Amino acid sequence: MTVDFWTLLLISLLAALTGALSPGPLFKFTVEKSLACGRRGWSVGFWAILGHALIEGVILAALLLGLSAFLDSSLTLLIIGIVGGLVLFVFGLLYLKDAISGKLSLRFPDTKSSCEDTPEIPTPAGENSPNAVERNFYPLWKVVLGGILVSMSNPYWWIWWVTVGLDLVLLYLPFLGTGLGVTAFFVGHELGDLSWYLLVSVLVFAGRKTINVKVYRGFILACGIFILVLGVYSITSAILSWM
Q1: What is the pLDDT of residue 29?
Q2: Which domain range does residue 135 map to?
Q3: Cys staple from 176: which of 8, 168, 181, 200, with CB 3.0 to 4.6 Å?
Q4: How many domains does the chain have?
Protein backbone atom coordinates (compact mmCIF):
# COMPACT_ATOMS: atom_id res chain seq x y z
CA MET A 1 0.00 0.00 0.00
CA THR A 2 1.37 3.43 -0.97
CA VAL A 3 1.19 6.02 1.82
CA ASP A 4 2.84 9.30 2.72
CA PHE A 5 4.78 10.20 5.87
CA TRP A 6 1.86 11.57 7.90
CA THR A 7 -0.55 8.79 6.94
CA LEU A 8 1.86 6.08 8.00
CA LEU A 9 2.70 7.97 11.21
CA LEU A 10 -1.01 8.17 12.09
CA ILE A 11 -1.66 4.51 11.27
CA SER A 12 1.35 3.44 13.35
CA LEU A 13 0.28 5.71 16.24
CA LEU A 14 -3.25 4.30 16.33
CA ALA A 15 -2.02 0.72 16.06
CA ALA A 16 0.32 1.28 19.03
CA LEU A 17 -2.37 3.06 21.04
CA THR A 18 -4.70 0.07 20.75
CA GLY A 19 -2.14 -2.07 22.57
CA ALA A 20 -1.11 0.61 25.06
CA LEU A 21 -4.66 1.22 26.30
CA SER A 22 -4.96 -2.34 27.61
CA PRO A 23 -3.61 -2.52 31.18
CA GLY A 24 -0.62 -4.85 31.45
CA PRO A 25 2.80 -5.18 33.12
CA LEU A 26 4.11 -1.88 31.73
CA PHE A 27 1.00 -0.08 32.98
CA LYS A 28 1.49 -1.50 36.50
CA PHE A 29 5.19 -0.62 36.39
CA THR A 30 4.41 2.98 35.34
CA VAL A 31 1.88 3.43 38.14
CA GLU A 32 4.24 2.05 40.78
CA LYS A 33 7.20 4.17 39.72
CA SER A 34 5.09 7.31 39.33
CA LEU A 35 4.48 6.98 43.06
CA ALA A 36 8.08 6.06 43.84
CA CYS A 37 9.80 8.96 42.05
CA GLY A 38 8.47 11.80 44.18
CA ARG A 39 8.16 15.15 42.47
CA ARG A 40 9.57 13.63 39.27
CA GLY A 41 6.78 11.06 39.20
CA TRP A 42 4.80 12.87 36.52
CA SER A 43 7.58 12.15 33.99
CA VAL A 44 7.82 8.40 34.63
CA GLY A 45 5.66 7.62 31.58
CA PHE A 46 8.26 9.30 29.37
CA TRP A 47 11.22 7.43 30.88
CA ALA A 48 9.46 4.06 30.86
CA ILE A 49 8.55 4.48 27.18
CA LEU A 50 12.10 5.59 26.42
CA GLY A 51 13.27 2.16 27.54
CA HIS A 52 10.36 0.54 25.73
CA ALA A 53 11.28 2.45 22.55
CA LEU A 54 14.93 1.39 22.72
CA ILE A 55 14.08 -2.31 22.59
CA GLU A 56 11.36 -1.76 19.98
CA GLY A 57 13.91 0.04 17.80
CA VAL A 58 16.05 -3.07 17.93
CA ILE A 59 13.06 -5.28 17.04
CA LEU A 60 12.08 -3.05 14.10
CA ALA A 61 15.65 -3.01 12.79
CA ALA A 62 15.84 -6.80 13.06
CA LEU A 63 12.58 -7.18 11.15
CA LEU A 64 13.67 -4.85 8.36
CA LEU A 65 17.12 -6.41 8.05
CA GLY A 66 15.70 -9.93 7.96
CA LEU A 67 12.82 -9.35 5.55
CA SER A 68 14.61 -10.92 2.60
CA ALA A 69 13.92 -14.35 4.12
CA PHE A 70 10.18 -13.62 4.08
CA LEU A 71 10.05 -11.98 0.66
CA ASP A 72 11.43 -15.07 -1.06
CA SER A 73 8.15 -16.91 -0.49
CA SER A 74 4.75 -15.56 -1.55
CA LEU A 75 3.15 -18.26 0.62
CA THR A 76 4.93 -16.86 3.68
CA LEU A 77 3.66 -13.38 2.87
CA LEU A 78 0.14 -14.77 2.55
CA ILE A 79 0.36 -16.54 5.91
CA ILE A 80 1.77 -13.50 7.70
CA GLY A 81 -0.89 -11.23 6.19
CA ILE A 82 -3.74 -13.55 7.19
CA VAL A 83 -2.42 -14.38 10.67
CA GLY A 84 -1.61 -10.73 11.44
CA GLY A 85 -4.99 -9.65 10.08
CA LEU A 86 -6.81 -12.27 12.15
CA VAL A 87 -5.02 -11.17 15.32
CA LEU A 88 -6.02 -7.57 14.60
CA PHE A 89 -9.59 -8.65 13.86
CA VAL A 90 -9.86 -10.59 17.13
CA PHE A 91 -8.37 -7.70 19.10
CA GLY A 92 -10.87 -5.37 17.46
CA LEU A 93 -13.81 -7.61 18.41
CA LEU A 94 -12.59 -7.84 22.01
CA TYR A 95 -12.20 -4.06 22.21
CA LEU A 96 -15.70 -3.52 20.84
CA LYS A 97 -17.11 -6.09 23.27
CA ASP A 98 -15.45 -4.38 26.24
CA ALA A 99 -16.56 -0.92 25.16
CA ILE A 100 -20.18 -1.88 24.39
CA SER A 101 -20.64 -4.07 27.48
CA GLY A 102 -20.61 -1.02 29.74
CA LYS A 103 -18.45 -2.83 32.29
CA LEU A 104 -15.23 -1.18 31.18
CA SER A 105 -13.41 0.95 33.73
CA LEU A 106 -9.84 1.76 34.63
CA ARG A 107 -8.81 2.31 38.22
CA PHE A 108 -5.25 2.82 39.27
CA PRO A 109 -4.22 0.14 41.78
CA ASP A 110 -3.56 1.23 45.34
CA THR A 111 0.20 0.95 45.31
CA LYS A 112 2.51 2.09 48.08
CA SER A 113 5.56 4.04 47.09
CA SER A 114 8.64 1.83 46.96
CA CYS A 115 10.66 4.67 48.42
CA GLU A 116 8.79 4.54 51.75
CA ASP A 117 11.33 2.09 53.12
CA THR A 118 14.36 4.09 52.02
CA PRO A 119 16.22 6.22 54.58
CA GLU A 120 15.59 9.94 54.80
CA ILE A 121 18.52 12.15 53.86
CA PRO A 122 18.91 15.53 55.61
CA THR A 123 18.95 18.48 53.26
CA PRO A 124 21.85 20.96 53.36
CA ALA A 125 21.66 23.59 56.06
CA GLY A 126 19.65 26.65 55.19
CA GLU A 127 17.18 24.89 52.90
CA ASN A 128 13.61 25.25 54.09
CA SER A 129 14.11 24.49 57.79
CA PRO A 130 16.85 22.94 59.92
CA ASN A 131 14.80 19.77 60.22
CA ALA A 132 13.90 19.54 56.55
CA VAL A 133 14.43 16.14 54.92
CA GLU A 134 14.05 14.78 51.45
CA ARG A 135 13.50 11.18 50.37
CA ASN A 136 15.94 9.10 48.40
CA PHE A 137 13.59 8.56 45.49
CA TYR A 138 13.72 5.81 42.86
CA PRO A 139 16.33 6.84 40.20
CA LEU A 140 14.99 7.54 36.72
CA TRP A 141 17.67 5.48 34.95
CA LYS A 142 16.12 2.44 36.62
CA VAL A 143 12.76 3.43 35.12
CA VAL A 144 14.35 3.36 31.65
CA LEU A 145 15.90 -0.04 32.37
CA GLY A 146 12.58 -1.24 33.77
CA GLY A 147 10.82 -0.15 30.58
CA ILE A 148 13.15 -2.46 28.65
CA LEU A 149 12.92 -5.45 31.00
CA VAL A 150 9.17 -5.25 31.61
CA SER A 151 8.51 -5.05 27.87
CA MET A 152 10.74 -8.03 27.12
CA SER A 153 9.18 -10.11 29.91
CA ASN A 154 5.66 -9.62 28.52
CA PRO A 155 4.81 -12.52 26.13
CA TYR A 156 1.98 -10.52 24.54
CA TRP A 157 4.48 -7.89 23.47
CA TRP A 158 6.45 -10.52 21.55
CA ILE A 159 3.27 -11.96 20.05
CA TRP A 160 2.22 -8.49 18.86
CA TRP A 161 5.53 -7.89 17.07
CA VAL A 162 5.79 -11.30 15.37
CA THR A 163 2.17 -11.12 14.14
CA VAL A 164 0.72 -7.61 13.95
CA GLY A 165 4.06 -5.74 13.90
CA LEU A 166 5.54 -7.91 11.16
CA ASP A 167 2.28 -7.76 9.21
CA LEU A 168 2.23 -3.93 9.30
CA VAL A 169 5.88 -3.75 8.26
CA LEU A 170 5.24 -5.98 5.24
CA LEU A 171 2.01 -4.15 4.40
CA TYR A 172 3.79 -0.79 4.13
CA LEU A 173 7.15 -2.13 2.99
CA PRO A 174 7.43 0.06 -0.16
CA PHE A 175 7.53 3.19 2.00
CA LEU A 176 9.37 1.53 4.89
CA GLY A 177 12.21 0.87 2.47
CA THR A 178 13.11 4.55 2.84
CA GLY A 179 14.54 6.37 5.84
CA LEU A 180 11.48 8.62 5.90
CA GLY A 181 9.18 5.61 6.03
CA VAL A 182 11.05 3.97 8.90
CA THR A 183 10.98 7.28 10.79
CA ALA A 184 7.23 7.67 10.27
CA PHE A 185 6.51 4.11 11.45
CA PHE A 186 8.80 4.23 14.49
CA VAL A 187 7.94 7.77 15.65
CA GLY A 188 4.22 7.13 15.20
CA HIS A 189 4.40 3.89 17.15
CA GLU A 190 6.29 5.40 20.06
CA LEU A 191 4.06 8.50 20.16
CA GLY A 192 1.07 6.20 20.57
CA ASP A 193 2.67 4.52 23.58
CA LEU A 194 4.02 7.78 25.01
CA SER A 195 0.72 9.68 24.80
CA TRP A 196 -1.00 7.06 26.98
CA TYR A 197 1.73 6.28 29.52
CA LEU A 198 2.68 9.90 30.07
CA LEU A 199 -1.00 10.63 30.76
CA VAL A 200 -1.08 7.75 33.24
CA SER A 201 1.98 8.97 35.15
CA VAL A 202 0.66 12.56 35.23
CA LEU A 203 -2.73 11.40 36.59
CA VAL A 204 -1.12 9.18 39.22
CA PHE A 205 1.21 12.02 40.23
CA ALA A 206 -1.80 14.35 40.51
CA GLY A 207 -3.53 11.88 42.83
CA ARG A 208 -6.24 10.74 40.43
CA LYS A 209 -7.65 7.28 41.22
CA THR A 210 -9.47 6.65 37.98
CA ILE A 211 -10.03 7.90 34.43
CA ASN A 212 -13.44 9.09 33.20
CA VAL A 213 -15.23 5.90 32.17
CA LYS A 214 -17.09 7.45 29.22
CA VAL A 215 -13.91 8.93 27.77
CA TYR A 216 -12.01 5.67 28.23
CA ARG A 217 -14.84 3.65 26.64
CA GLY A 218 -14.89 6.08 23.72
CA PHE A 219 -11.17 5.57 23.12
CA ILE A 220 -11.52 1.79 23.32
CA LEU A 221 -14.49 1.82 20.92
CA ALA A 222 -12.62 3.95 18.38
CA CYS A 223 -9.53 1.75 18.66
CA GLY A 224 -11.66 -1.37 18.24
CA ILE A 225 -13.20 -0.09 15.03
CA PHE A 226 -9.83 1.01 13.67
CA ILE A 227 -7.99 -2.28 14.22
CA LEU A 228 -11.03 -4.26 13.06
CA VAL A 229 -10.91 -2.40 9.73
CA LEU A 230 -7.11 -2.71 9.59
CA GLY A 231 -7.39 -6.45 10.18
CA VAL A 232 -9.90 -6.90 7.35
CA TYR A 233 -7.71 -4.80 5.06
CA SER A 234 -4.64 -6.87 5.90
CA ILE A 235 -6.40 -10.16 5.17
CA THR A 236 -7.94 -8.99 1.89
CA SER A 237 -4.64 -7.43 0.75
CA ALA A 238 -2.77 -10.68 1.43
CA ILE A 239 -5.35 -12.77 -0.46
CA LEU A 240 -5.50 -10.38 -3.42
CA SER A 241 -1.69 -10.31 -3.67
CA TRP A 242 -1.67 -14.11 -3.72
CA MET A 243 -4.28 -14.42 -6.47
Answers
A1: 92
A2: 5-242
A3: 181
A4: 1
